[in-house]
Structures are given as structure tokens and as C-alpha cells.
Design brief:
This protein is 61% helix and 10% strand. The chain is extended, with a radius of gyration of 28 Å. It has a five-stranded mixed sheet, with helices on both faces. It is built from eight helices and five strands.
């Protein structure tokens, strides 16, 4: 015999408060849809960083603009080659690793590389010679290698950042000149992975671009958005529509345009938590708000 309640097929009866709450969410969804329609109609310009490209979306027109070219990817690969050398020597049979790396060095030597790249190859070559001479890999070998690489990594990182900033700025100029949208009608979205380590440079460039606009005197952060895990223009449009709807509500009822940028309870949390713990220590009964 089942203890589960019988499903009569009748809809659950909502209290007036529950019904009104549902009504609010339905109207909120319609308001968000209104802003999505504005985006679809081309009244709002979206500029998206996705992978190695910028993507502009204005109405039905979607265009791609390359940012990371061959030079950028070469600099990135150079840095990885130095790490690959360390991994190979520590985690492969030593004779096999030495042979493999010397073969790669010979091929890389024939390429045209920046001075930091040539210095990187010399550091790898010195490590190989030291290891081959002693027929083992020691902590001291790796430490000396790491010390030699640190200033080279700094140079490669600076070169990579310079390349990316230059191309981002150029392509932003091309996009904004093409569409000539007001800064207030332009949103910048960054697609990426875990926020702590993904596309920080692009976020900073977008923010600087907004800060330099005479049309945006306050609240520039509203126009620069990070979207973890997103892949499509439709996702970006939905994110921006939500931001526009939330801004409208927050400005009107919270007195701050960014009032709904986080869990609204989080804004009151610090005070409430302190009061709660203080009441517990004082032995005062703690009750939920009535």
C-alpha cells in the first residue's frame, strides 16, 4: 500500500500572495522580452569577446573580427615550450626526453623568433646540456632553469599583452565606427571560463574603452559583462536583456542602478549576521522576522 498522496490531476490552489508573486515574474519576463526585442531590432549593439575574436551583433548582422593572430599564438607557444621541456625531463625516460627536445630545438632554431624567444631556446639548451652531463635531473637543475626563465616569461607576457591590447583597440574602433551607436546603447560581453583566470585583459580593455567615453559618466560597469561558459550570441543577448530589466527595477526601487547585480539579501547580510551572532552570545532569543 503506497503512502504517496493520490494525484487527482487538479491544479494546486495558490494563495493570493503566491499568485501575485507568479504574476510579477510573468510581467518581469515580458519586460525582459521587450529588451530582447530591442536587441533583435538592432537598437542595441553587442560586442562580444569569444575565443580569439571579437564579435559584433547589431540586429541580424553578426560579424567576426580577429584579435589573436599568428604573432600572439607564437608567443604563447614559446612560453609553453619552456614548460614542456621541464615536464619532459621530469616525467619521461631521460634519454627519450633529451632526444625529443634536441630535435625540437633544432627545428625551432630555424624559425624567426623575438629576442626573448631565442633566449628561451638558449635556456632550454643549457638545461639539456646540464642534465645530459650528469645523466640525471636534480632539483637544482630545475631551480636554475626556473630562475633563468622568470625574466623571459615577463618579456613574453608583456609582448603578448601589447599585441592583444593593440588589436582589441583597433577592432573596437572599427566596430564602433561602423555602427555609430551611442555608448549607452552598446554592451561589451566577455565569454570565458572560470572567472578568476579567464580573459582578464579583455575585461580591462572593455572597461577602459567605456571609461574614456564622454557619454558614460557613471556606472560604466553596467555595460561590461562577463559570461562564464557562454558560447552563442543568443546567450549574450539574453544576458544583456536581463541586465537592462534589472537596472530599470533597481534604479527605481533600490535607488542604485546596480542594486540587483548581486543577491539582494547579500547587501543586508553583514549587518544581519552580526546582529544574529551578537544576540546568540547575549542569550537573547533569535526569531525570524515577523
Amino acid at each position: 500500500m503506497s503512502n504517496q498522496p493520490e494525484d487527482t490531476g487538479a491544479p494546486a490552489v495558490l494563495s493570493p500572495l503566491q499568485a501575485l508573486n507568479q504574476h510579477f515574474y510573468q510581467l518581469y519576463a515580458k519586460r525582459k522580452q521587450y529588451f530582447e526585442q530591442q536587441i533583435t531590432a538592432g537598437e542595441v549593439l553587442l560586442i562580444i569577446r569569444s575565443g580569439s575574436d571579437l564579435i559584433s551583433c547589431c540586429g541580424s548582422e553578426i560579424k567576426h573580427y580577429p584579435v589573436n593572430g599568428d604573432n600572439y599564438h607564437q608567443l604563447k607557444a614559446l612560453a609553453h615550450s619552456a614548460l614542456a621541456a621541464s615536464y619532459s625531463l621530469q616525467h619521461m625516460p631521460l634519454p627519450q626526453a633529451i632526444t625529443l627536445l634536441r630535435d625540437y630545438l633544432q627545428q625551432l632554431q630555424a624559425m624567426t623568433l623575438p629576442s626573448a624567444g631565442q633566449d628561451m631556446l638558449n635556456a632550454i639548451r643549457q638545461l639539456l646540456n646540464n642534465v645530459a652531463e650528469q645523466n640525471c635531473v636534480t632539483h637544482l637543475h630545475i631551480q636554475h632553469y626556473a630562475d633563468a626563465l622568470q625574466p623571459l616569461f615577463s618579456k613574453l607576457i608583456t609582448l603578448s599583452a601589447t599585441d592583444e591590447v593593440t588589436h582589441l583597440h583597433k577592432q573596437l574602433g572599427v566596430i564602433c565606427e561602423r555602427y555609430r551607436k551611442a555608448a549607452t546603447d552598446t554592451f561589451y560581453i566577455v565569454f570565458g571560463g572560470p572567472q578568476a583566470r579567464s580573459q582578464e585583459l579583455t575585461k580591462r580593455v572593455f572597461t577602459k574603452w567605456c571609461n574614456d567615453s564622454d557619454e558614460l559618466l557613471v556606472d560604466n560597469s553596467h555595460h561590461v559583462r562577463y559570461f562564464e561558459g557562454a558560447q552563442t550570441v543568443a546567450e549574450a543577448a539574453s544576458l544583456v536583456a536581463t541586465a537592462m530589466a534589472d537596472r530599470e527595477l533597481a534604479q527605481t526601487f533600490l535607488g542604485q542602478a546596480n542594486g540587483l547585480e548581486q543577491d539582494i539579501l547579500g547587501r543586508a547580510a553583514d549587518k544581519v549576521i552580526e546582529r544574529h551572532w551578537a544576540a546568540l552570545k547575549a542569550g537573547v532569543p533569535v526569531n525570524a522576522a515577523s
